[in-house]
Structure formats: structure tokens, C-alpha cells
Amino acid sequence: MGRLSLVPVVAVSALLLGACGGDEGVSDSEIVEAANLEEGSNGAAYTVGGDPFCEVDELLNDSDEVEAASENGSVLVIADSEQRAGISGVPPFDPQCAKRARRGLNALE
Fold first, then answer.
1. For the chain, what is the domain count?
2. Domain that holds residue 91
3. Residue at 75 is within a domain
């Protein structure tokens, strides 16, 4: 009987630990607003401030996505300083757009 009562406690503890250790993530709308993204054209999902030399093909909603994109050497990743959220840019990508997007992403709470 002692073992059976322990099972629910262990299960609940595992769920709580998993919830605490996970990354909450940042919504698409928060990233779009923070990085001043506009709907893109010519196959790009977004552009920074409507600039065609600042195309974005993916929104990175949490640290796992930022890390995975960063590990892919062919992807240009622009993220906040804590690497919690970011965008994946399409080269050539204007460095001024990268600065503006990073500044906005850093303002995310």
C-alpha cells in the first residue's frame, strides 16, 4: 500500500519539474511587434520595417528554437540578448535592420 500512494506524488512532482524547467516562449505577435516586422513578399514571411533587404523567414519563439537555428551555420539568427526569442534572416540582410530588430527583441519582457 505504501508504494501505491507514492506513485501519484512522483507523477505530480515530475509534471511540476517539467513545467518549471521549460521555456515559456514568446508569441508570434510579440516578436512581430518588437522587431517591427511587416508581412513580406517574394516568398519571405516578413520584412523588418518593410525593407526588402531585411527579409525574415522564421520567427524563433523560445530558446530551444534560437539554439537550433544558431547551430545551423547557413542561418542568420537575430535574437535578444538572453536568446529567448528571435528571427531568422535571409541574406543579404542589412546590418542596420539587424540592430533595430535586436533592440526591439531586447525590449521584450
1. 1
2. 24-106
3. yes
Taking only the tens place, the pLDDT of each residue in 65-95 is 999 999 987 689 999 999 999 999 999 999 9
Residue 16 placed within a domain: no
Q: In sequence order, what are the beta bridge partners of 55?
A: 47
Between CA 10 and CA 86 the distance in angstroms is: 36
pTM: 0.75
The verdict on residue 63 lying in a domain is: yes
Residue pLDDT, tens place only, 37-71: 999 887 779 999 999 999 999 999 999 999 999 99
DSSP 3-state of 86: strand
Give the rounded distance of the alpha carbon of 95 from its chain centre: 19
Cα dihedral sign for 86, 73, 52, 58?
A: negative
* Cα gap 33→5, rounded to integer Å: 49
Q: Give phi and psi for 65, each to the nearest 5.
A: -65, -40
